[in-house]
Design a protein that fits this description.
Length: 266
C-alpha cells in the first residue's frame, strides 16, 4: 500500500504554495497599478514618432487627395533638461533622398502647471542641407549631438498632447492653440497642426495654413495624413524598407495635384 508524505511535509508544502501565490499576486498588482510618470509619456511619444513610415495605404484609397509620402524620424541629441531632440524629414516615396521638409523636434513632458502630458515642438534647422538623409547615414557620418543642438533654429510650432480617452483608437492626441503659429507660406498668416499617436507606432498628422480672413491656403482639406510603419526587414540605419519601391501608379506630373496637398505646408 502506497503512503503519502508525512502531514508535516504537506503543511509545509501548502505554506510554500500560498506564499508564492501571495508574492506573485502582489507583484502583479504592483505591475498594473504602477503609475506612468511624466517622462514615461514623453518616451512613448518619442518612440512612436521614430522610424520610417508611409502614407501608402491612404494614397491607394484616395489618390486624388493624398500622396504616398515617406516619414523618417530618428533620435539626434539629448538636451540638458532630459528632453529628446529628433530629426524629422518627409519626401515623396519615389525620391526619398530629396526631402521636401526637414525639422528638428523636441519631446518632453508638459510643464506641471499645464493640463497635458507631452509637449512636442518643431524647429527649423540652421543648415538643412547638411542634415539631408540624416537618419539613413551611419552614426559616424552624422553631425555630433552638440552640433545638432547648436543647429536648432527658430521655433515653428508646439503641440500639447494628452492621453486619449478610453475606447478611442489613439494613445495620444493634441493640437496647436486655435490661433496657431505665424506662417507666411503661400499667403498664409498662421498655421495649425493636429497630431495623433495610435497603436503600432502609427501617426496621423494634419497641418493647415490660413490667411488673415481665415481661408485655408495650404494643407489637406479632407483629413489628416495617416503614416504607418514600413513593413519588411530593416535594410539600413533608418530601417528603410524594400516595400518603398512598390508601385502606386502615380502620374509623373503632379503639379495640378499638389495644390491642397500636404506638400503645401512649407
Amino acid at each position: 500500500m502506497c503512503e503519502g508524505p508525512p502531514n508535516g511535509w504537506s503543511r509545509a508544502r501548502g505554506l510554500v504554495v500560498k506564499t508564492l501565490v501571495l508574492i506573485g499576486g502582489a507583484l502583479l498588482i504592483k505591475r498594473f497599478t504602477k503609475s506612468t510618470t511624466r517622462w514615461d509619456h514623453a518616451r512613448i511619444v518619442s518612440n512612436s514618432l521614430t522610424g520610417e513610415k508611409f502614407s501608402k495605404e491612404q494614397a491607394a484609397r484616395d489618390p486624388d487627395n493624398f500622396f504616398n509620402l515617406r516619414w523618417l524620424c530618428c533620435p539626434a541629441a539629448d538636451m540638458v533638461d532630459g528632453s529628446k531632440v529628433l530629426y524629422f524629414e518627409q519626401a515623396f516615396w519615389r525620391t526619398p533622398h530629396k526631402p521636401f521638409r526637414q525639422r528638428f523636434c523636441t519631446v518632453k513632458p508638459c510643464p506641471k502647471e499645464m493640463k497635458c502630458d507631452v509637449e512636442l515642438s518643431t524647429y527649423a534647422i540652421r543648415d538643412a542641407e547638411e542634415y539631408k538623409n540624416f537618419c539613413d547615414r551611419s552614426r559616424d557620418q552624422r553631425p555630433l549631438p552638440e552640433e545638432v543642438i547648436g543647429d536648432v533654429a527658430e521655433h515653428l510650432t508646439t503641440i500639447h498632447l494628452n492621453r486619449c480617452e478610453r475606447g478611442k483608437r489613439c494613445l495620444y492626441e493634441g493640437s496647436t492653440p486655435p490661433e496657431g503659429f505665424p506662417n507666411s507660406w503661400n499667403g498664409a498668416s498662421y498655421c495649425t497642426s493636429e497630431l495623433a499617436v495610435l497603436k503600432n507606432n502609427e501617426i496621423h498628422t494634419w497641418d493647415r495654413g490660413y490667411d488673415d480672413d481665415g481661408k485655408q491656403v495650404w494643407g489637406v482639406k479632407n483629413g489628416p495624413y495617416e503614416f504607418k510603419p514600413a513593413p519588411g526587414p530593416a535594410t539600413g540605419p533608418a530601417y528603410t524598407s524594400v516595400d518603398m519601391l512598390s508601385t502606386l501608379n502615380f502620374p509623373l506630373s503632379i503639379d495640378k495635384r499638389i495644390e491642397g496637398s500636404f506638400v503645401l505646408q512649407e
